[in-house]
Amino acid sequence: MGKKVIQSEKLRRPVATYSQRIQAEDLLFCGGMTAFDQDGQLARKGDVKAKTVQVLENIKGVVEAAGGTMEDIVQTTVCVTHLPNYPCVEQMYKTYFPKDPSARATLRIDLVKPEYLVEMSATAVIEASSKNG
């Protein structure tokens, strides 16, 4: 099968050189997701909860478009700009992974734009029989 680049119509087109989603056999790699909605609007300024929810909704949309669910995610990387925001990010993260969460790395980093506050990437395993495309 090789590598297949897919862009979700529900997500804003990337403004940098990356793909939202790469499928390779049963693996789905979701690029770094920030808190932009499908209209290209960034979630409320300074609201880490709203931003985290939007990021997780973006990941969920990409995984579902590939025929999977959040339960198919096996690894995530969570990047936060301010460690004091971590408890809120963790609280929201738990609501999307209530049972058997993925392996995860969490990093405090400077994002491309400080107002992003949080960015996440994910890898999922989605069996070929459940894929939509």
Structural description of this entry:
With 133 residues, this protein is of the alpha+beta class. It has one domain (3-9, 20-128): 2-Layer Sandwich (60s Ribosomal Protein L30, Chain: A). The chain contains 2 helices and 6 strands; from the N terminus they run βββαβαββ. The protein has a 6-stranded mixed β-sheet, covered by helices on one side.
- Tell me the Rg in angstroms: 14 Å
Helix content: 10-25%
CATH architectural label: 2-Layer Sandwich
What percent of residues are in strands? Answer: 25-35%
CATH class: Alpha Beta
Distance between the termini: 12 Å
The shape is globular
Let me know the average pLDDT: 87
Strand order of the largest sheet: 1-2-3-6-4-5
Unreliable sequence segments: none
Number of beta strands:
6
State the fourth-level CATH superfamily: RutC-like
CATH topology: 60s Ribosomal Protein L30, Chain: A
The topology string of helices and strands comes to EEEHEHEE
Q: Helical element count? A: 2
Main beta sheet: strand number and arrangement? 6 strands, mixed
